[in-house]
Structure formats: C-alpha cells, structure tokens
Amino acid sequence: MSGIFRGNFALVVKIVILAGVTAILSLLAQSAFARGEIAIGSFLVISIVALNFTYLTKVSIPLKFFVPGVLLFIAFVIGPIIFTVVMSTFNYKTGNYISKEAAIEQVLIRGVEPDANQTTFDVVAGKASDGKDAILVSDVANQKFFLSTQDNLSTLDANEVVVNEYGVATTAPNFVATSLEDLALDDSYAKIRYKFSDGYYIVIEAQGVGAVFRQALTYDEKTDTMRNIQSGEVYVDNGRGNFALEGSPDSVLTPGWRAPIWFENYTKLVTDSRVRTPLIKVFIWTVIFASLTVLSTFAFGLLLAIALNRRMRGRRVYRSILILPYAMPSIMSILIWGGMFDSQFGAINNLLNTDIAWFSNPTYARAAVLLVNLWLGFPYFYLICSGSLQAIPSELLEAAAIDGANPRQVFRQITLPLLLQILSPLLIASFAFNFNNFNLIYLLTGGGPRDTLDGELAGATDILISYTYQIAFGTNILDFGLASAISVLIFFLVASISFYGIRKSKVMETFG
Amino acid sequence: MTKWMRENLWRHSTAIFMCIFALFPLYLVVLSSLNPSGSLQLTSFIPREISWDNYKMLFSSPKIPFLSWVKNSLIISSTVAISSVVIGAASAFAFSRLKFKGKKLGIQFLLLVQMFPAILALSAVYVIMERVYSFAPSIGLGSQAGLILVYLGGSMGVNIWLLKGFVDSIPAELDEAAKIDGASPMQTYWLIFIPLAAPVLAVVCLLSFIGTFNEFILARLFLVEMEGRTVAVGLQQFIGGQYATNWGAFAAGSILASIPIVIIFLSLQRYIVNGLTAGSVKG
After folding, report:
1. Chain B contacts of A77, Cβ < 8 Å?
2. Does A61 touch chain B (CB under 8 A)?
3. How far is residue B132 from each of residues A91, A94, A312, measured CA to CA in Å?
4. Which of A185, A278, A381, A413 has the fewest CB atoms found within 10 Å of its own CB?
C-alpha cells in the first residue's frame, strides 16, 4: 500500500498537480500585474515560489503539510485583516474610491466645457480611408462640410458630398460610414475627441449629433495641480484625496481618490459628535444586549439543567425537544421570528391580541431581539450546564447536606459558584460571540427602528458590528475608511474579552 | 401532596413550559407551510385544512428557483467543508505532531488571529474580491467560485485551531511507533494518522458544512443573480418586506432546507457538545 505514496506514480501525480497549479497561478499573477494590482500579483508570485520550493525540494517536511493551508490563511484571513487596518487610515469612500491616476483621468474627462455658442453639428460617424475613426460633419446652416479625425480636420467642398433631404452630408470621398447597429454595439465612439479648431473638438453627444467642446482643466504633473485654462483658477491636492480650489477648500473637483489621512478616521470617532454620539449609543446597547443575552440564556439553561438533572420520566423526550432551537439553522429561525413579530400579520400580536408595531418602537424592538436570542441560545447553556452539573463531585453536595444545608443553600453556596468557575470561559466566549452577533440583528430588525429622515445611520437595535455594516454598505455612500476604523476598535474590544477568557481557562487547566 | 409531586412537579412544569417555548415557532412554521392562504396568522392551533400548495409552489413557480438555491448551497457548502478539512487536517497534523522551529510562536499567532471575527474584515474582503474581479471575473466578486475561496480561506484559522484540538486528543503512541519503524512523516500521515482520525475529520467536515450553510452576509454580498443564490439568501430576499403574501412558501422552503441540517446536527450532538465544552460557539 505504501507504494501509492512513493515511487514513480506518486511523483508523476505530484508534478502534474504542481504544474497545473503553477500554470493557473502564473496566469492570474500576470493578469493581476496587468491591471496594476501589485499586492495581489506579488502574493500570487510568492505563492508559486513557495509551492514549488516546498514540494520540489526536501528542505522542510513540516512545510509540505503547511503550505496550502498557510497560503489560504494569509490570503483570506491575514490579508483582509491587514487591509482593514490599512483602509482605516485612508479616506476610502464613495467619491474617493479609485486610485489617484484614475481620478486624474476622470477629472480631465469631466473637465470640459462647451464653446461659447454651444455649437452643435449634424455628424455621421465612420472611418477615414486610412482606417482612422472619423466623422463627417455638416454645418447645415452655412452649407459647410468637414471630415474630422482625432488629429486632422479637412474641409470638403459642397459638391464632393452627397446630402440627404435635410441637407446633411451622408457620404464623402475617403469616408465609410459605420452602420447604426455597429455604433449601438460600441460605446467607445462617444469618448473620441474629433479635432475641430485650436483647443476645440467635437464629441458625439447623441445619435447623429456632435457638440463642440474644449478642455477646461489641465493637469500639471510637476506641481500636481489642476488648472482651469480660461479662468486661471488653480486646484491643488488637498491631501485628503481631492483637488480643491486654492483659497476655498470646500470647492473640490470630483471624483476624488483614496488618500491616506492617517488617524483621522479614528479621531473622528472621538471628536466628531455626529459620529461619536451614535457610536456611544450603539456601544452601550451592544454591551447591554450581549450581557442580557448571556445572563438570560445561562439562567434558563441552568434552570432546565437542574430541573432535568435526575432520572425522571420523559427526560429524553424533553431533551430532544429542547435542543431543537439549537439544531435549526439559525438564519431560518431568525427569519421565522421576524415574521412572527410582524405587526399586521404576525402570530405574536395575534396570540396576545395586541396591535403592537414591534419593530417600530425602540423598546419593543429591543425586547423582541432579546427574546429571540433567548430562544436561540438557551439550549446551548442547557447542554453545557447539564454536562457540567454531572462533573461536580457528588461528595461535595452530600457533605453539605449532611452538615445540614438545605437544597437552596447547597445550590447557592456550592453548586452555583463551582459552575460559574467551570463555565466562566464559556460565558465569556458567549459574550464575545453575541457582541458580534450580526446575523440576529441584521435579519431580525435590520438594526432598526432608525430615523432615516434625520440621516441617522444608527438604529435602536444596532450593535457595533451591524452599525459598521451600515456605514460600509448600508447607504448610497459606502464609507469603508470609517467602517474599518470601527472594525479595528471592535477587534481590540473583543480580543481583550477573549484574552481574559483564555487566561481564565488557563488558570483552570492548572488548578482544575 | 405526595412526595413525588413535591419533588417532580416543578421539574416537569419547567420542562414543559420551555418545550412549548421551543416548539411554538417551529409548530407555527409547519402550520403555515400547510396553510393554503399563505398567511402566518395564527387562526387556530389545529389546521382546518391541509394543503401542499406551498410545497408544490417551491418546485413549480419560476419566481422561486428553490431547487437551484438548494443545489448552490449544497455545492458551496460541501466544497468548502471537504477542502477545508483536507487542507486543514494536514496543517493541524504538522502543528500537533511534527517538530519544527517557531512552532510555539505559530500556535500563539494562530490563537490570536482566529479570535478576529471574520465579519470585521467584511469590507476588506469585499474590496479585495472586487479587485480580483477586475482581472479574473470568474473568481472575483459575484462568482460562486470566489465565494467558495473566501469561505475556504476564511475558515482556515478557526478550522486549523479546531482540528489541532481534535488531533491532540488522538493518542500519539501509534505514530511514534511507526516513526521508530522507519516511516516517513508522509507515510505516518497517510497510513496511520488519517485512518485513525477519519471519524473526527468527518465530524469537523459536517460541522463546517453546517457553518457554511448557515452563512448569510458574504453570500448576500457575493451572489447577486436570482438563480445563483444560496437557500438562505434566496429565502430571505423572497420574504423581504412582504411577509404576508409569501409566508407560506417561505415556511415550506425553510422546513425543507432545515431538515437535513437538523438531522446532521442531532446525529452529531455528542461531538458538538464535547466540542462546545472545548470553547467553541455555534453561530
């Protein structure tokens, strides 16, 4: 059997797989570099080298086990974490999303103005005899005709062209019109600047219509400024990803680019009251939500575990039923609960004979969120607690009973403290999990109710992570920079909670 | 009051109360899925008439490509589950059994990083995959292959950590014996370790399947086309904003989609509970 893993067959398979993977990755790396994605391309190249080095040499045997996992780990865990930190130092949002080069190009394309009379001509698009893009321009009013390419304008005599009933030239020597179907398929025609006169050019504005424009903005590479040719106004890089008019920083050219603004996203969290106030509100609710969830799920789970902690009729049936909420895919359960809380058609109002708009009132919405999370979470603690109750040595309880403690005293002074000690890492882990329980909030209330009229992003049931999502993806303005800064903040919060939990469990390993 | 009553009444009443709480939404879903009117109003606890229209609708209505959704979910979840265990098991084996420089540091680093909730890096993953799309659309944003890659890579930290825990619990005597007999690490891995660990790997594989099946937000951001969605995203979008009209079909769909998961979960209960006490929390 070991022959399969040695010998020629294995070698051939290994080389074929390695060659295939190398080929695919090389292809990807090449296209990545071609698109200017240096970081992704470099990572792919490093991957290729690492894979080939590991599997073609015998330098390190552990590496042969590691490399695929580690490469994926770097690509999709470490990479995004680093990128999150990087983005948090950038002005990276809608309007400041592209690279500076692309932004300059876009600003120049947009930085045009029509000539004083807003002249338009009738044009026919096509190719000149030398294959260059050309238009046949008819100045119908003056019965003048030109053939214009990107770098040349030639006047045509009226007798050279064939005109239709509107006086528009349709054919000319050295010119082949492009069919309308072909024009419809290719939108590059609209971007071509056909020469008109010095500084001015013609752009196809609509089917058969060309308008005269001139470039208003020019980019000066040396000073890194944009200048308006006519007015002489100068726009300078404002250091935040836009060209702004000198002396009036609010007047910026669009689009901007993603620019490093260092700690501004972080300082905004503290200094900008429009960011700070909702953030504090959301943070407080996040802590309340996570604490109450842990408390309620633990309390109900423990109660059940104690109730069922002896041989009794029906225990297996109870256990199978009680575990069901935990076994259901949580997404489905959350959506079902969402439907049940519907004010008009929901079963809850129906059952209570009330008419409450659950998700429109902050207090009711919060209560609903907590109730649903109790339903989702109590089976977990029921399972955990029943396991842990059995782990408490019965001698302890018996000794206490012999000493005359009543059951309540035994529970409060022996069982509960011991249980809390055993379970504290899990309670902390559950807190950390619920701190980021995005699915529940997003699928149940969507973070709402929120005052959209006030432009308020934070809803009454929003927790930090759903609020972050709202900032990043929730509205028309995607603000990845600010969202990333909050993500980093959340990470430090959760990491310190988790570290505390790990230290607790370490302590237990040593003394338990 | 008899002794039995005193000792057991509260136990049974607590259990029954919580069972009703646990069952209520589930019973309601079953009821609605059989209710032809398609509403989720609680008219009575016993259905007056039973109709399978909602189930039929799932398989016949062109507006709800339910079968494609199920197929997508199955493909994505099983690809991710199998690949992540195959790749993760090798790394976990190395971390657990092989000696190399920087092992302790590596484990500590892994522990630290797997604490970073994947959802925090959501916008970063989005931007990265958007850029991948610009040069390789078939594995970038919007493609199932891209989503699989993101799931697979994203699960590496937690998965290697979880698998390492399981591998540590498998006695090392056998592979040490193999080593003394002159087996190379590769042989030890394939001939001794994998057969020994197979049940554990299967469990982790199924857990990973459930986890991926349950994932919502990445799938939501990635899969835009109706036909290409997963069950979770499809059903969520389907009822979005108009509970009243679509509830019946949604109920039927979520029952069908949940049954396999519930069965897997219940059959793995023992392992999951053990895993839970090891400190992991299900989503």
Report:
1. 113, 116, 118, 121, 153-154, 156-157
2. yes
3. 21, 19, 59
4. A185
Summarised one tens digit per residue, pLDDT across range A364-388 is 999 999 999 999 999 999 998 988 8
Q: Which residue of B94, B116, B276 is in closest CB contact with A383? A: B276
Least CB–CB distance from B150: residue in A76, A324, A380:
A76
CB contact under 8 A, A387 and B29: no
| Residue B283 pLDDT | 33
Residues B80 and B220 placed together within one structural domain of the fold? yes
- Domain boundary (B12, B39, B57) is at B57
Q: Do residues B53 and B162 share a domain?
A: no
Three-state DSSP string of chain B: CCHHHHHHHHHHHHHHHHHHHHHHHHHHHHHHHCCCCCCCCCCCCCCCCCCCHHHHHHHHCCCCCHHHHHHHHHHHHHHHHHHHHHHHHHHHHHHHHCCCCCHHHHHHHHHHHCCCCHHHHHHHHHHHHHHHHHHCHHHCCCCHHHHHHHHHHHHHHHHHHHHHHHHHCCCCHHHHHHHHCCCCHHHHHHHHHHHHHHHHHHHHHHHHHHHHHCCCHHHHHHCCCHHHCCHHHHHHHHHCCCHHHHHHHHHHHHHHHHHHHHHHHHHCHHHHHHHHHCCCCCC
pLDDT at A1 (0 to 100): 45
How many structural domains compose chain B?
2
Residue of A2, A76, A96 best to disrupt the B interface, most CBs of B under 10 A: A76
Residues B114 and B32 in one domain: no
Contact at CB, B23 and A339, closer than 8 angstroms: no
Q: pLDDT by residue (tens digit) across A331-369?
A: 999 998 988 888 777 788 888 888 888 899 999 999 999
Residue A77: predicted pLDDT: 92
pLDDT at A511: 42
State whether B148 and B36 are in the same domain.
no
> Is-contact A488 A85, C-beta < 8 A?
yes
Instruction: Output the pLDDT for position B243.
Output: 47
A93–chain B nearest CA distance, Å = 11
Task: Judge whether B252 lies within some domain.
Answer: no
CATH class (in words) of the domain with range A112-215: mainly beta
Question: Count of CB atoms within 10 A of residue A131's CB?
Answer: 8
pLDDT value for A510:
47
Tell me whether residue B261 is in a domain: no
The residue of B13, B21, B122 whose CB has the most chain A CBs within 10 angstroms, and thus the best one to mutate to test that interface, is B122
pLDDT band at A512 (very low <50, low <70, confident <90, very high): very low
d(CA B81, CA B151): 9
Domain co-membership, B50 together with B72: no
**Do B41 and A350 lie within an 8 Å CB cutoff?**
yes
- Residues B225, B103, single domain; the answer is yes
pLDDT of the residue at B279 = 39
Mean of pLDDT values over A447-451: 84
Mean pLDDT for the stretch of residues B85-103: 90
CA of B265: which chain A residue's CA is closest? A327
Contact B187 A2 (CB under 8 A): yes
Closest residue in B to A505 (Cα–Cα):
B279
> Do residue B77 and residue B135 come from a single domain?
yes
Task: Establish if B256 belongs to a structural domain.
Answer: no
pLDDT score for B212: 92
- Position A44 pLDDT exceeds 90: yes
Residues B217, A314: C-beta atoms closer than 8 Å: no
Q: Is A65 close to B93, i.e. CB distance below 8 A? A: yes
Quote the minimal CA–CA distance from B41 to chain A in Å: 5
Residue of B nearest to A33 (CA): B135
Both B15 and B118 in a single domain? no
Q: Which domain holds residue B90?
A: 65-239
Number of cross-chain residue pairs from A and B with Cβ atoms under 8 Å apart: 282
User: In terms of CATH architecture, what is A268-511?
Assistant: Orthogonal Bundle (1.10)
Shortest distance between the Cα of B62 and any Cα of chain A, in A, equals 22
